[in-house]
């Protein structure tokens, strides 16, 4: 079974631009979560989607948004990029929403650099 | 704001047992405690998950005291390939936001 795939793997943008990152979960998984990883803040939760609905959201500004499609694929968008948005963005999929026992499978991440 | 705290780094030698403790003083009542392993340039990988007492699988054990305010990941007989960063993950009570610890960098020496 194929793992979680994220595209693109690397991205360079300039301040003020916007970016869209894509995540394809493991086949059959309906929940997708997004995390930001930086050396300074570590791994931080962005949001979780299940059956095309956002179920939970972390403490990030409104510039960060996401959506999930009917095939469970997910995208996240960051508008008006800032230098501090440079990070590794990780997507994780799981069979069900993360309420109880729930193993998340992470993709390799998208490395975003904002210049 | 609730914090999830782990040691920043640990050193060990091949064949030894390694115990990494995570403090999570505001864990959600019904939440499980999960541990992940991460190698450079890869996403985290699930190791083990538990709710209370002790859980064991083929690679690790997880010990959780009755108050569930901490958990200890135990890696038996580590090898060089266990050199990685280990994270605990819990949901914070109230907000139910998944919260990772800052990670423990484990270095296993020959």
Please provide a written account of the structure.
With 115 residues, chain A is mostly beta strands. Chain A has no helices and eleven strands. In chain A, strands 2, 4, 5, 6, 9, 10 and 11 form a seven-stranded mixed sheet that branches. In chain A, strands 1-3-8-7 form a four-stranded antiparallel sheet, with no helix packed on it. Chain B is an all-beta fold and 110 residues long. Helix content of chain B is 0%, strand content 52%. In chain B, a hairpin with a 6-residue loop joins strand 9 (84-91) and strand 10 (98-100). The interface between A and B is medium-sized, with 25 and 23 residues.
Pick out its properties.
heterodimer; A: 115 residues; mainly beta; 7-stranded mixed β-sheet; 4-stranded antiparallel β-sheet; 52% strand; B: 110 residues; 5-stranded antiparallel β-sheet; globular
How do the helices and strands line up, and which of them pair or pack?
The complex is a heterodimer of chains A (115) and B (110).
Chain A: E1 5-7, E2 10-13, E3 19-24, E4 31-38, E5 42-50, E6 53-57, E7 64-68, E8 74-78, E9 87-94, E10 105-106, E11 110-114
Chain B: E1 4-5, E2 9-13, E3 18-24, E4 33-38, E5 45-50, E6 53-56, E7 61-64, E8 70-75, E9 84-91, E10 98-100, E11 104-109
Parallel strand pairs in B: 2-11
Antiparallel strand pairs in B: 1-3, 3-8, 4-5, 4-9, 6-7, 7-8, 9-10, 9-11
């Amino acid at each position: 079974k194929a793992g979680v795939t994220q595209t693109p793997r690397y991205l360079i943008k300039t301040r003020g631009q916007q970016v869209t990152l894509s995540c394809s979960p493991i086949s059959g998984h309906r929940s997708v979560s997004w995390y930001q990883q930086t050396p300074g803040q570590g791994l931080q939760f962005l949001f979780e989607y299940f059956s095309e609905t956002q179920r939970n959201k972390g403490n990030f500004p409104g510039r960060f948004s996401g959506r999930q499609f009917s095939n469970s694929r997910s995208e996240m968008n960051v508008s008006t990029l800032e230098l501090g948005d440079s990070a590794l963005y990780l997507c994780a999929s799981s069979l069900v929403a993360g309420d109880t026992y729930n193993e998340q499978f992470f993709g390799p991440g998208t490395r975003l650099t904002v210049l | 704001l609730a914090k999830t705290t782990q040691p920043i780094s640990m050193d060990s030698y091949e064949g030894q047992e390694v115990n990494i403790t995570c403090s999570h003083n505001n864990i959600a009542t019904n939440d499980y405690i999960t541990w992940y392993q991460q190698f450079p340039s890869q996403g985290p990988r699930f190791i083990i998950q538990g709710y209370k007492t002790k859980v064991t699988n083929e690679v690790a054990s997880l010990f959780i005291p009755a108050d569930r305010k901490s958990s200890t990941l135990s890696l038996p007989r580590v090898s060089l390939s266990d050199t990685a960063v280990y994270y605990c993950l819990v949901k914070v009570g109230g907000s139910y936001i998944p919260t990772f610890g800052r990670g423990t960098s484990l270095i296993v020496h020959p």
